[in-house]
Amino acid sequence: MRINKRLLAIFAVFVGCGGGSTTPALENFDTVEQQSDRPKIDAIETGTDGQDFGSDFAEATMDSVEVVGDTGQDIQGDTVSCKEGDPCDDNDPCTFGERCHNGECVGGQKYVCDDGKVCTEDKCDGKGNCSFTLVEGYCLIGNICYQEGAKNPLNDCLVCNPSSSKGTWTEAEAGTSCDPTSSLDQCTIATEGNCDKGVCVATNTAPKDCDDKNPCTLDTCDKEKGCLHEPQSNIPCQTQSLCAPGVCMEGRCLAPPEADCDDGNPCTEDECDPTLGCLYTKLDNVPCDDSNACTLDDKCVQGVCTGVPLNCNDGNICTLDACDPITGCYHDIEDNACCQAGVSICDDGNICTDDFCDPETFACQVVFNNAACNDNDPCTQYDSCSQGVCAGIPIDCNDNNPCTVDECVAGRCTYTILDQVPCNDGLDCSVGDHCEMGKCVADKSGCVCEPDFSPTVTKITSMTIASTGYPGQGLDVDQNPATCAPLQNGCSGGVDNALGPIASLGNADIQKSLDRGQVIALFEYKNFRTDGQPFSLGVLVGKRLDPSNPNCDFQTQQCQFIVDKNSYNEDCNPLVSFSNARVIGNKLVAGGKNYVFPFRLPITAGLQLEITLYFARIEAEITIQGSTITQLTGVLGGAVPKQQIIDAVMAVPDDQLPLPKDTIIGMIDALIQPDIDGDGDGKKESASIGIQITAIPATITGVE
């Protein structure tokens, strides 16, 4: 007869539980198995205090065992014959399903004793019973295996210790390190904890840091809920742009459309540096308005608008003189014996005298004053009284140009241009000085300036117009991180490089010129410093190698160069210079909105156009050893008016162009899309450009 293993397992559990008892009674289950002459399951041998888990094992094991009916009577294979194919018994209690074959009982399958647990040794004991013995070094807690020393998943201070108990958790040794997280509230953290009587006690506790780095949230902590971040509104904050101060709105830092670096101070020059943020240069001796009616001749002094105190003394002893910052001077009538309707009997009508009256004798006394006054001459300023006379200082209209006649007319300076008359340009080395349309010109061929050369110089070794507008291939020329160019080639991160589509037309010629020494571009760092303070970066044109090193490899070695004298003005200063260069860490930045950079732009093979970069800026990574820049890698950026490029092409003779002018102009129109408003009229007329550059150290030894 075939017995259903599932029904047998359920029956085993029911009988083993004593008919509803909550405590398993494996002995009863064993008895039932023996009475039915079926394989039985022994209780697990824990060696503990008597707690066992037999019912669990009974159901689990019997689920995996299929029992084939036994005859109930052992058949001796060598003495008792059996019918071919009939069930039989091979006298092995650990097998089932035997069949008679050729007079022998064969084909029995071994019972599988597997409770699915790694910590028990599962076997049939040879008596038709499964036994499950707990392996040394393990605990079985809650029907789950744990190795010796394993911690309770919910409490580090309870461990598996088979020597104390194989079926329950044991308290960890006092002082054992543990994780105190579960014992703390939501606002407290601790890096360490020690066990004490089965509980993890926190040590070195500290408040939880709930700062979410958002300036527009109020960060607090609730012991039950943890960190809370309440959105804030209408408080100042800083946006991602260092030049756009923002305001918190519902937990977000937003910049108003008009946000910029304007500090509202007329005595600072406000500039936005994308790397450093807003920069403010203090102005001196620039007219301003301090909005105080009690001052006059307001001028900037070290970035502060300061005026001369207004003298409100009207020279009339019959008035009380004072000043209101909003309305200016006022004069209240004083009534006394010397005054009649607010007019002194001693008043001589001269604002530059103070007329006093003795109220008892009515004797008059006249004293000169220094009151502010008006001499009625529009070409004087700072009018004041002196020795009873009102006089001002003549307005200085001198423009220091010997080729203009400087005059003040009706309070305004006028300049009459002189032409073809002798002048003096101030240079002893020039000859034939004369005025040409208001400018003093002369033959300066005999003049060679002798500047002081800086020891810190680099030579450009590569210049490449980048093809895209991704970071590293251009700069944020318009200082607007929301725009980028060229869209047709790809751009991001606010990088502007609208001339990228023509990069392939000229880069090869640029590099050839550098490699052959036809173009020698040098950066000279005057008063070089690395503390973040400004210094001057001059751009010079190299003439040739110094004769002392004629074979120097100028693309790889630090060579000595002679500089073209045309790189300097008559004062021996570089014609192209960035006065705001700074080094912050290993980053060099220079230039910006008010800087220009003359540049030769290759349009196609054989054609180079003389153009000027506006908004010129340099950003580069540098390596420094002492006062030497050993390596420079960065980007030169700026903007070129598109019409300037077209005009430059039109000015080139037709026979010097590789293609018809109409074809070249058509290419420029098709490939270059203006993206910069250079003149501030609200229209984009200029195209941005990004030029990748590298440089190595060099030395300047002379000028010719």
Concise overview:
The protein is mainly beta and 704 residues long. 9% of the residues lie in helices and 40% in strands. The protein folds into six domains: 5-141, no CATH class; 144-206, no CATH class; 232-256, no CATH class; 310-394, no CATH class; 404-443, no CATH class; 457-703, no CATH class.
Strand content: 35-45%
Overall geometry: flat
Discrete helix count: 6
Distance between the termini: 119 Å
In total, how many beta strands? 45
Secondary structure category: mainly beta
Helix content: under 10%
Domain tally: 6
Global mean pLDDT: 81
Write the layout of secondary structure elements.
Elements: H1 5-16, H2 26-35, E1 40-41, H3 54-63, E2 95-96, E3 99-101, E4 104-106, E5 109-110, E6 120-124, E7 129-134, E8 138-141, E9 144-147, E10 151-152, E11 155-161, E12 165-171, E13 188-196, E14 199-207, E15 217-222, E16 226-231, E17 236-238, E18 245-249, E19 252-254, E20 268-273, E21 277-282, E22 295-301, E23 304-309, E24 319-324, E25 328-333, E26 339-340, E27 343-344, E28 353-357, E29 364-368, E30 380-386, E31 389-394, E32 404-409, E33 412-417, E34 431-436, E35 439-443, E36 457-465, H4 503-515, E37 521-526, E38 535-545, E39 560-563, E40 576-584, E41 587-591, E42 596-604, E43 607-625, E44 628-641, H5 642-651, H6 661-671, E45 686-703
